[in-house]
Amino acid sequence: MKIETQVLENRFVRLEPMSEGWREELRAACEADPETWARLYPFSWAGEHFEPTWKMLMGDVAAGRTIGQAVVVDGTCVGLTCFSSIDNANGVVEIGGTYYRPDQRGGPVNPSCKRLMMGHAFESGARRVVYRVDAINTRSRAAVTKLGATEEGILRQDRVTWTGRIRDTVIFSILADEWPGVRDRLDARLSAFG
CA-CA distance, 82 to 71, in Å (whole number)? Predict the structure, then answer.
């Protein structure tokens, strides 16, 4: 597996490598939902937390640990998503660190992003794509299930969030031999949007 940093695009979204040029639009997108950061994420992008979290992401990108993607709709950054935990030797990659501005949820943005990212991962030789979701994040758990991922189990007390809450993490995956069916269902789902 060799996942390259590149622009990925379909009719609903454009995923561009995260860069300084997207910083302020991403900040504005993150400020649109401060409650989400307080409850559901292991780290915060809101308020005074934005700069250190930005620095951490860009450090991980520079070190090759993460491929951060700006989620661009109609020319505006409305969120971010990442390839992380990239294990080229074993053909495993995690898709996560995903956030969308509230007005972009529930429509074609998430399935479009995941269709592009999984397509890129499997075309790059991935054997397994992983999703890790906070157990209390029912919206994300439902979205990952709707993508066609298999829930594998729960890692109990997996990590401590930035608020000090101890998080259980639900693990989902899609395997390479499952991808054609998942891809076809995602394509059918996306074709239903205008």
Answer: 10
Between CA 28 and CA 54 the distance in angstroms is 13
Domains (ranges, CATH) in the chain? Answer: 8-191 (3.40.630.30)
Long-range contacts formed by 138-145: CB under 8 A, 24+ apart: 139/105, 140/40, 140/98, 141/170, 143/110, 144/172, 145/172
Q: Which helix (H) or strand (E) holds 6?
A: none
The edge-to-edge listing of strands for the beta sheet with 66-73 is: 8-9, 14-17, 66-73, 76-87, 92-100, 128-134, 166-175, 150-160
Q: Which of 186, 86, 102, 89 is nearest to 146 (CA)?
A: 186
Tokens for 13, please give them.
């979204």
Give residue-wise pLDDT tens across range 120-178: 999 999 999 999 999 998 988 999 999 999 999 999 999 999 999 999 999 999 999 99
Structure tokens at 36: 């989400």
Q: Rounded to the nearest 10 degrees, how much is the dihedral formed by the CA atoms of 183, 128, 105, 70? A: -110
| C-alpha torsion angle, residues 13, 17, 19, 22 (rounded to 10) | 0
